[in-house]
Amino acid sequence: MKNKRLWVSLMAGFLAAMLLLGLILSALPQASAASSSEIKDQIEKLEQQQQELEGKIEDLKNQQSGNASEAVELMAEKNLIDQQIGLLHTQIANLNEQIAAYALLIADKQEDLEKAQERLAELNRKNKERIRAMEEDGSLSYWSVLFKANSFSDLLDRLNMIEEIAASDRRRLDEMSAAAKVVEDSKVELEAEKLLLEENRKELAAKQTELESKAQDAQNLLAQLLAKGEEFDRLMEQYEEEQKEFIDEISQKEKDYDEAKYQEWLATSVPPTTKPPVISSGGVGGSAVGSSGATWLVPCDYSVVTSPYGPRVHPITGEVGKMHHGVDLSGYAIYGKPIYASRSGIVSLAGWYGSGGWTVAIDHTDGYETFYMHMTNYIVKKGDYVTAGQVIGYVGSSGGSTGPHLHFEVRLNGESKNPMLFIG
Questions:
Q1: 138 with 234, same domain?
Q2: How many helices and strands (H and E) does the chain possess?
Q3: Which of 7, 22, 203, 273 is most buried per CB count within 10 Å?
Q4: pLDDT of residue 184
Q5: For the chain, which residues score pLDDT lower than 50?
Q6: Residue 233 sits in the same domain as residue 291
């Protein structure tokens, strides 16, 4: 009995402590979660910043393209200059060879000229010595010829002999002088041609220097363009990383928005004390034979049709008589529950669908098409073949939605039909 009283006392103390702790915690300031409208404003601001970033990326792409085009043109220009420099280098080398050859020819001509001049001088010297010797011994003088002649005929013979000797000497001197003149003229001509080649070489060398300067300028500019291109690439990587961060942040904000919408819907909804009746004949995975004669499965575990097919007051715009082309299926804690393909078919749409939010559409290849809107997420892609009852996504509140639900549409050849004629 004593132990029982002790246990009761301990329990009472524990409960009192827990109650006190609860009161203390309730007195602490609570962080208020952002409302869906605040999150929507944040999303719009992020999307605006993302658009501005996309504008920067587009401008940067244009600058990259212009920079690359300029670099390509400059490289082509530099290659042409390099080719011209190479050609000039070859021409200058050829001229150097020709100038060297002319220098050898001129040296040969100079040697020939010196030899000819030496022979001419030697011949002239010998002639003078011979004439002087003949004059000294009296064999060659007009007086000796006149006085030693035996007859007039002998006198004429002696005079003719003297004339022939003199003429022979003159001819030899003239021939040697002419030969020396030819050599000298040839040398002068070679020197003139060599001088012309040297002038051409100077002109080509000056042109080569000019082209090398242009090539260096082009190389410097090309280096600047390449450096600018590297900076553009660095900026592009930075922008793409920022863009990825925007996409991730917007994606998270959209999830936060769906959750906030769901929490706001829960705050204005009264949870049922018992599970409401399921309108469809088969519940989850239940089936019905629609007007087409095919079997249609119920697309989600819903407990209430919050908005039927037909004209209504639009819940967001307030427009009266606005046609509602599907049915809105909802229920307690429906957010995040699986959505099933009502019939087998090929996914014709998987993505954002305007006010329908994240949407999947299935083409059943017999004129019928079903739409599943306002998903929080979808797990199929366009072109996939899905079977009836296969999970294609999860209930959410994306797009133009006032709370978590599935907007389910049935279309025949593009014209909407009342889905309840097919599923329940």
A1: yes
A2: 5, 14
A3: 203
A4: 77
A5: 1-4, 6-8, 10-12, 15-16, 19-31, 270-291
A6: no
What's the CA gap between 263 and 203, in Å, rounded?
A: 88
CA neighbor of 282 nearest in space, from 418, 422, 168: 422
SS3 of 293, please? coil
pLDDT for the residue numbered 415: 95
> Is there a domain that residue 273 lies in?
no
Is 110 within a domain? yes
**Alpha carbon distance 208, 84 (integer Å):** 8
CA distance 216 to 136: 82
Contact 354, 373 (CB under 8 A): no
**pLDDT tens-digit profile of 271-315?**
443 333 333 333 344 444 444 556 899 999 888 899 899 998 878
Do both 158 and 214 map to the same domain? yes
SS3 100: helix
Q: Is 138 left (phi over 0), alpha (psi -120 to 50) or beta?
A: left
Amino acid at 345: G
Q: Taken in order 244, 335, 25, 13, is the CA torsion positive or negative? A: negative
Interatomic CA distance for residues 53 and 44, integer angstroms = 14
Alpha carbon dihedral 129, 130, 136, 141, in 10-degree steps, equals -130
**pTM score, two decimals?**
0.44
Q: What is the 3-state secondary structure (H, E, C) of 237-250?
A: HHHHHHHHHHHHHH
The β-bridge partners of 377 are 394
Cα dihedral 373, 376, 380, 385 sign: negative
pLDDT score, position 6: 45
Beta strands in 283-405, from DSSP E residues, in sequence order: 287-289, 295-297, 304-307, 310-312, 322-324, 327-330, 338-340, 345-352, 358-363, 368-378, 385-386, 391-395
Domain with 76 in it: what CATH number?
1.10.287
> For position 35, what pLDDT does the model report?
85
Neighbours of 53 (CB within 10 A): 16
Burial string for 80-119 (b: 16+ CB within 10 Å, else e) reads ebeeebeebeeebeebeebbeebeebbeebeebbeebeee
Q: Please tell me whether residue 406 adopts helix, strand or coil conformation.
A: strand
